[in-house]
Every structure is written in C-alpha cells, then in structure tokens.
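tmp note - Peptide/nickel transport system substrate-binding protein
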Amino acid sequence: MKIRRLSAAVAVAASGALLFSACTSPAGSDDPAEGDATATSAAADGPCKADLGDVTTADGEIKVSVEDEFLGYNSNTPETYSTYNSAVTDRLFGGFYYFGADGSICADEEYGTYEALSEDPLQVQYTLNDEAAWSDGTPVTYADYLLDWAAQAITEDGKVTEDGSETPLFNHISGLTLGDYVPEGPQADSPDAKSFTYDYERVYADWRIQIGSAFPAHVVAEQAGISTEELVTAIQDLDLDVLKDAAKFWNEGWLSQPGNVPDPAIAPVSGPYNFKADGWEAGQYITLEANDAYWGTPAATKELTFRFVAADAQIQALANGDLDVIQPNGPTVDTVTQLEQLGDAVTVDTNQNLTWEHLDFNFNSGIFSDSLEAREAFALCVPRQKIVDDLIKPIAPEAVIMNAREVFPFQDNYEDTVSGSYDGRYDEVDLDAAKEKFEAAGLKEGEKVRIGYAAPNPRRAAEVEAIKSSCDQVGFEIVDSAAPDFFDKDLPNGDYEVALFAWAGSGQIASGENIYSSTGQQNYGGYSDETVDEAWKTLASTTDEAVHAEQTVIIEKQLWDTLFGIPLFSHPGVIASSSSLENVRNTAAQSGVLWTSEQWARAS
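out:
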C-alpha cells in the first residue's frame, strides 16, 4: 500500500493533493445512448481533460493494473485509504474538482461550481448541477454534504470539535479538520437544496480542495432507520442517539469482503462508472461498467477492469494482452528497457511526478535523535548524485537531485525556493567532512544505522547499497532493514534509524504541516521545531501567495539546518498502454494514469 500524504485537505474523498490553478472540465451529451460509436481522440493542450464533444459508450473492456485488492466503497476510512482503493472509487463519484496532468486543480463544472463569496472572512458557495444524481435516482444535494461535514466535525460525545484534537464519532481519515475550520457546517435552505455555503472561522490556504465528493446521505439515513430529513435535523441538533447509528453504518457498512460486490441498494454512485454485478474475483480483478443512469458525459468504454497484478508481472501481462494499461510502481531501468522491446504494440510515456523519495531520521530514539552532528555526518556521505545518475536518469534523463520538500524541480518556483533555503552543502559526498562530524558526535566505528523500507523494492535496495558503499567508509555500519510490514510495524514503532520511503501527491499548499509540525499525524520520526511550527501556522492561515512563498523558504531552510531528513529525487513516472487505445494520458498527480480513464477508448 502506498503511503499518501494526509492533511486537512484530505477532507476530500481521498483523491489526492496538489497545486492551484483552475480550468474547465469537458462537456458532453446530456442524454447519452449506448452504442458502438466510440469517443474520438482529442488534443489535450492544457493540464485538464480534453473536451471530447458528444460521447457514446462503446461496447468492450479495457484492463488496467493495480497492485492491491479492492477494500471498499468508502475510501475515507483508515482501513480503506490507499492509492489503489481510490483508483477504483474515484471512478464512482463525481466531485467539484479533479487534479490535472501537472497536478493543477481542474474545476469539474459538469458536476457543479464553487466560488469564494468573500475572502476575509472566508465564505465559499457550492452549487451542484441540477441533474446531478445518484445511480438509484436520488438527487445529490446539500444533505450529502452536510453528512460529509458531520463525518469530519462531530466528536464521539456529540459535540462539534473545538480544535480537532478530540476523538471523532466517524472513522474518517481526516479526523475533525473540517469542523475545526467550519464549526457551523454548510448552510442551505433545505435538505434537498442544490446550493450551500461554508463559512470558515479562519482562512485555510487549501480551501479550494476542501470539498470534493460526498457519500449518499439517504442511504445512511435509511440504514439508521430514519428519513434523510431526520438525519439532517439530527446533525444540525447534534442528536447523538441518532448519529451513533449513522456513524456505525458510515464506519462499517461500506467495508467489503473480497469478491463480494457492494449491494447497489447501499452503494449507489454519482460518477460515470458503477460496480458490475458479479464483477469481482478476489485477488484477481474487479470490473466496473458504465453507469447507465449517469447524467453527465458518459464513459467512452463500457467496462473498465482493474486487475490486481504485482509491478514485476505487469509488463508481461501487457505483452500478453492480459492488461491494456500499466503504471508500474517504482520503475527501474529494466522496466523501460523491457517496454521498449515490445515495439510499436505499446505506447510508453515517462515523466517526473509529484511523488518524491526521502530519507527521514528517527528523532524519538537512536544515534540521530539528539545529535545534529551525527545527522550531518550521515548526510555528508549519502551519494545523492550517484543514486540519481544510476537509478533515475536512465528513466528520466532530466532528473536532478531534489533539494526541497514542498516544491519540485520541474515547478516554476523551485529555484527561488532553493536559493533562499539551501546552500548545496550535501549535494556532493564529502567523506573527510563526514568523518569530522562523526568524531565530533562521539560516534564509534561500526555504529549501526538501520535503513528501513517496505520490501520487496529493488530500486530501494540499490539505494541502500549505494549508501552503504559510501557511508561505511565514514564509520557507520549501514544495515538494510527492509521488511514487508515496514509501514504497518517498523515505521510507526520507530524500529529504524533512517526511514526510506516516498510521499505521494505532494503540492498542497499546507499539507506538509501534517508531516513536519510537532503534532503532525504523519510526523513519524518525532521531529519538533518551534520555527517550523510557527511558519506552518502562518502559511496555512492565509491565501496570500507571497506569504506562502516566504514561509515555505523559512520552513525549507530550517528543515535543512536542523536536518529533519534528506530529500533524494522526484520519482519518474512510467506508463505504458496498448497502441490501440486513445486518450491515455500521463500525469504528475498521484491519481495516476487513471485520471482520464472514463475517456479511454479503442481506436476506431
């Protein structure tokens, strides 16, 4: 399971993270009819989806790889929140925005629109398409978004959160963040309203992606034994007796047993695809089919099958025709070589994406916890340039060492950020300086450093091998501590000196606060710094881009000066697809190649 960055902005339906610029979504037929005509290919000049014009759904099936089993309709619980689960569920739900090819925010105006009515105080109005409806015919309304707010606002004792630190009633991965910012909840004239407003108690930098998709309130109400109107009233009145039943279903009722397709009576969809009856074979695949009740632009191909295939088997499956589209996790030089050997039968695309590799120190215990000089000694011997040259450039020739955490080398503001925060001191290996720091830290020859990561991962094994070859010369004894349960066990338990993994979907304005602040839920290493904490508070509480840039430099500089960890490189992204397919597009965003999947079609 990929680790994905969480933040207050994860109050959206677990779809990703990224940057801020808007563009419009494609428009299509309001009255789709199934037939054999396919969508035509369209040029995609900008970061958002191409407008394909009138689309009818063609018969046929397209098969795409994911690496893990499907877990459930509700991707917003800790038990189901993963990149691979969202790969499926993102096809099922409409939302106010999606992430484009470069991570930009693209407004999905077919679903609805939103605008800030005022910035201070921040008030945002959302308006749903009048035709937006669940596949069972129930309109998507304010009631769905009030439930979405409740799941991120109400505490287990039936109160609205005061600061987000209380125990939530709903098992939502974002905790109580939305209630912390919007304590009164969204406001509307009636439960079936198509327009509603959010009044923020304080400004939140990432407000544009705070509200995305929602789950069906009418289903939760029915399962709790009440009407939708009664559920709305219970939320507004904080009626804990009713809300406990609603939360119990929200928390547990949408979890799935492998192979059991969710009951359409409790799992209606609002997007272009729906579950196919009997379309899930545990450990093998799950198939979606075009939602014949969809009110928007229809899916271009009738069936979309997600096959659960490990990264090392995907290329052969593509060659055999068992897969049509792949995006191998952790691609290597061999990955690209093998794909090129398939010739004209496949289309291969590479890019740098918004996922980045890093080495993080353990501040809770061990030799690096209270010694900057020890951390400096390690940083001075890590061969970052060699790692990039040997493992990344053969895939992405433009790749460089990454010298920031909140900004990527291919983004326009990268150079300005780095020039103000980092002096290049760790760009090249300096064994003499590393040895001096090693001695100054009072370390002894043969000091063990366990580098932990999730196994198996050939590229990370090669990274650790390169680090060992260099850092053992300083006096460290680098130990490859790869483990299959690293994320579930070693990382949360602190059983490492250095953690090697990646954050996916970086680029939200304030998402890093959850990682680098003293109380951040994803600050696994226990790092704490007052300067960093204060800078994040300032950054997150404004929409002023100049302040964002200023505070980002402060944060990056302090993270370098105190050595939170060591950034390595932006991940190369590799996708490959059958040459017979149209509208398959690469992306830097963590939504991956599937972001345009409803537009995929066989060439006519």
